Please model this.
Amino acid sequence: MNIPTKPASKRKTVGVFLAEISRVWGTEFMAGVEQAAEEHNVNLVCFVGGKPSSLMTPGQLQKSYGLYDLVKPSQFDGLILAADIAHGLSPKEIKDFCRAFAPTPMVAQAIEADWSRRDPRRNGRSRWRAPSFSR
Model:
């Protein structure tokens, strides 16, 4: 199956991952993300898929994350992870989940994890790092 890629001249597209949107903070968070996307002329695609639990089935070569598997790195310019996506996950589980979408840049809201990737072409310096905004 060929996955279509976007022409460079097209409007940027950002995916947003949330476990739930029904909580008050979820709707406030999305309102802010939507406002910023409008101001910067960015397409948003929201994925509300619950807690990302990895599934392995016989014959599968890589983990599956259910609804989140619809996200193909070549179709997105970046991903935003809402805080609730990491609720109940270990740092390793969060890191494994994020690796499934490499090399797409990611940012996170209130998720503590070091997701840095070392790039040998940059003398081992991080290529990107998802910031932590927690207190």
